[in-house]
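Sequence and structure are kept together here, with a separate record for every protein. A complete record is shown below as an example:
=====
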Amino acid sequence: MNEPGLGEIAALALGYGLGSIPFGLLITRVAGTADLRSIGSGNIGATNVLRTGRKDLAALTLVLDALKGTAAVLLARWLFGDAAAVFAGVAAFLGHIYPVWLKFSGGKGVATYLGCLIGLWWPGALAFAVVWLAMAFATRLSSAAALVGSIAAPLLFFSTGRITDGIAFALMTLVLWWKHRANLQRLMQGTESRIGAKA
């Protein structure tokens, strides 16, 4: 991989800026619900928004967190070219997880990961979605579905010769798994909550 040029560096800044917008926190503040950082896991993603009891706000957060990844990739491609798009995607993903505005404490990154895939290469997004749906249907474990789905995307990149994109998403997958380490522990203990289960 060549060293990043000015376009790629600008794409990193653009992606991080978009990715770090804390939609979950902003939406719940406008709606007058509890501060997300004081409930549940304390993160700013859609899953924690759902713990406020507002499914509509959780759905909106999910969509916006995904779209900021898509927007980062598409804008970078338009402004700086194809090579810059993956840089923007990685930066948006990291910006969501580690937003400077919230002392680098953000969400877990699943929605933004998928949004980046949608913008960069729809077959990768489709692979993620198909695996997620299959795992979720079979196990009713959202976290397990997301983690397994995140493996499918880089494997598809590698299998089709998109090595740079594959490396980028493999690294993002590692970060995603790291952010889900508490979920992994609960999965191993058999205590992870299932989709549709009552709290």
Observations:
- The chain has a mean pLDDT of 91.
- Residues 55-80 form the longest helix (26 residues).
